[in-house]
Design a protein that fits this description.
- The chain has about 675 residues and is an alpha+beta fold.
- Helices cover about 30% and strands about 15% of the residues.
- The chain contains 18 helices and 20 strands.
- Strands 1, 3, 4, 6, 10, 14 and 16 form a seven-stranded antiparallel beta sheet that branches. A five-stranded antiparallel beta sheet has the order 2-5-15-8-9, with no helix packed on it. It has a four-stranded mixed beta sheet with strand order 7-13-12-11, with no helix packed on it.
- A hairpin with a 7-residue loop joins strand 8 and strand 9.
- The protein starts with a helix and ends with a strand.
């Protein structure tokens, strides 16, 4: 906001110092309104084998939208027949689209693209074998950036110096150069156009076959890591106008010029002025200042949003679920045995959402409160949260389920209110202690005669270890992070394709497991061991297993080792002066209670045994404590590396206890 305020100040000063700016701008408008070539859009057919696996979806306006797999390098071939005679130039329009990253017009993660080479072949329609390579005499574009080396994310593991720059790079016959459109943050995601003028006009009495080659070879080496630099949406046109050049006006400015001046809004007038001032030689100094301000524009970030279609997509019944075999068309609706949609409402997602939360749709509220109940008691009032229909198991407490559903609706569908209601209830606050007799009668606690006791979810298992050790980062939000994981997981054959895993350092290494970046095809081993579901399917009820791998994970996984080492150091620094005091401190950090006498005796015995082994030289104290002696932490006065190592062993045991990762 500050940047745009300063730009507006400079522009306002220009307008103040030049009172006749409106008349001058009107004169400029009259000049640029005319002289535009007449363009004819062509609709070529794409040769599938040339796309590198990328899909080119033809749209109604004659443009192509690149979708699906995005190769990092390919040379697409497109052929069209035309009866137009004396073709003098071709226009390539790069268009924005909401289906592209940041709106496009490219497919890179920044919404940019690069055209390595633009080539055209021609042949008479009646003699298709007489192919001639056209010579492009001149190329013009609305953006011609200086020569710039490719960003690191487009590295292709070669020693070639690959660059982007002005549109002339697209006709120089070199694979190392390309026309680039990245004008920087705030200005890169807008339509662009380039015009390629041929040396000799094209004419063939019986029609002409035009074959376009759009070479896009400025991507990186790994298509699975979003390293493509492809064009996202584009349209091809031809003209017979001599000496045609690219329209220098941005599309939004050209659109405004078609509106009568007395009907334009102040914002539209200012948009035209912002472009026009760049063409005024006397304002070179002010334009340079504004350009410097644009260089300070921060990098933006994207956010998914719903945009309603102008034309609803036609939906069909699919024969045996096969999308390649559409059957009769269907319209939006709800099952006839339930209450109908409102007659006056449009058949949209919003209408359906309102129908779902209608008081006449109790299943929605029942389903939600059942899942909340499952979160706290390990099993829902209906044991099958994915199925509350006739084939599901009946509710264990049907009246309670209905009461909770009504409360949920009466409280304005407030999830926070329902969480508070359940955790403050007498049912939830019961002791989880169970007698053998009660356990034999109700092993799954369906009668709610005791409080819940079950192992926490996989993400929380990791968070408990980090929290107990003091390593857990309290940071909220932000991008996903990459905690330690074995390198072999991200290369074939363990992974479908090579993937980058940039192991986090510092605070990001200890973020909550919720923020762990997850590939659908490569589950994180620690989370998978503790039954965290894969990211490729929806999961409404997690399984809970009990395997030796889980104990091995909490003993040996890198972050659990680092947590044990950090807990040991914190225990020595803050736990007190005696081993008994320190044990109570560490025990409470892990289990939220003091140890019993037998527990204390067992753990102190382990501590002394480890001290003895270290004293005898069987183990290296610094190796066990996980520190380099030259970069050792500051130990409290009177403590030794051997004590730190011994407490590391005890901390590993505490973090490995069943009670540490059990909710009760």
């Amino acid at each position: 906001a500050e940047l745009f305020r300063r730009i507006r100040e400079i522009e306002a000063d220009l307008q103040h110092r030049q009172p006749d700016w409106q008349e001058r701008m009107a004169q400029w408008e009259e000049k640029v309104k005319v002289g535009q070539p007449d363009w004819t859009v062509v609709r070529p057919e794409v040769e599938d084998i040339s796309t590198g696996g990328q899909k080119y979806l033809p749209l109604k306006d004659g443009s192509f939208l690149a979708q699906g797999y995005a190769p990092t390098k390919h040379r697409v071939k497109m052929t069209v027949r035309t009866e137009v005679q004396n073709i003098t130039a071709f226009r390539l329009e790069l268009l924005t689209d909401p289906n592209l990253p940041l709106g496009g017009p490219g497919r890179s993660i920044k919404g940019t693209g690069a055209l390595t080479e633009f080539e055209v072949e021609t042949a008479p329609a009646d003699e298709p074998d007489k192919v001639t390579q056209l010579k492009i005499a001149k190329a013009t574009a609305d953006v011609n950036l200086p020569e710039t080396p490719l960003e690191a994310m487009f590295f292709d593991k070669t020693d070639k110096r690959r660059v982007t720059g002005p549109v002339e790079f697209a006709i120089d016959g070199k694979e190392e150069t390309a026309w680039g459109i990245d004008a920087g943050p705030g200005r890169r995601n807008q339509p662009r156009n380039a015009v390629f003028t041929v040396e000799t006009p094209i004419a063939s009495p019986k029609g002409t076959l035009l074959t376009f080659y759009l070479s896009q070879k400025h991507g990186g080496w790994n298509s699975d890591d979003n390293q493509n630099h492809n064009l996202g949406r584009f349209r091809l046109s031809i003209t017979t106008t001599p000496d045609a050049v690219a329209d220098p006006l941005p599309k939004n400015v050209r659109d405004i010029l078609s509106i009568p001046r007395n009907q334009r809004t102040p914002g539209q007038i200012q948009t035209v002025f912002s472009f026009w001032r760049t063409t005024v030689p006397q304002w070179r100094e002010a334009n340079a200042k504004i350009e410097e301000l644009w260089l300070q524009h921060p990098e933006g970030s994207s956010q998914l949003a719903l945009q309603a279609r102008q034309e609803p997509r036609e939906t069909h019944v699919l024969a045996r679920g096969d999308f390649l075999k559409p059957g009769k068309p269907v319209i939006p609706g709800v099952p006839a045995f339930l209450h109908p949609l409102r007659e006056e409402a449009a058949p949209t997602r919003l209408t359906f959402a309102q129908w779902l939360v209608d008081r006449n749709s109790p299943t929605t509220a029942r389903s939600l409160v059942n899942r909340i109940w499952q979160t706290y008691f390990s099993i829902g009032l209906v044991s099958t949260p994915e199925d509350l229909g006739k084939q599901s198991e009946p509710p264990s407490h049907p009246e309670l389920l209905d009461w909770l559903a009504v409360e949920f609706m009466d409280r304005g569908w407030s999830l926070k209110s329902m969480h508070r209601l359940i955790v403050t209830s007498a049912t939830y606050r019961q002791s989880s202690h169970v007698t053998p007799e009660l356990y034999s009668r109700d092993p799954y606690n369906r009668l709610l005669a005791r409080g819940p006791r079950f192992r926490v979810e996989g993400e929380i298992v990791r968070d408990i270890a980090l929290s107990a050790s003091g390593l857990l980062s309290p940071k909220v939000g932000g991008p996903s992070v990459y905690p330690p994981a074995p390198d072999f997981l991200f290369v074939p054959p363990a992974s479908y394709g090579p993937k980058n895993w940039y192991e986090a350092k510092g605070e990001d290494r200890y973020r909550r497991a919720l923020y762990t970046f997850r590939y659908r095809s490569v589950p994180h081993p620690m989370l998978q061991t503790f039954d965290t579901p894969n990211g490729d399917i929806s999961c409404v009820r997690r399984a809970r297993s009990n395997t030796p791998l889980q104990a091995l994970t909490t003993l040996n996984e890198p972050l659990f080792l680092e947590s044990a080492q950090a807990l040991a150091l914190r225990t020595l620094q803050e736990g007190g002066q005696t081993d008994t005091q320190r044990l109570v401190y560490a025990f409470r950090r892990c289990l939220s209670r003091k140890p019993t006498e037998p527990e204390s005796a067992e753990l102190l015995s382990l501590l002394n045994k480890q001290k003895g082994r270290l004293a005898e030289g069987w183990l290296s104290p610094w190796d066990m404590a996980g520190y380099n002696p030259e970069q050792a932490p500051q130990l409290p006065k009177g403590t030794t590396p051997a004590q730190l190592a011994a407490w590391t062993a005890v901390s590993r045991v505490l973090l490995n206890l069943d009670e540490t990762i059990t909710k009760e």
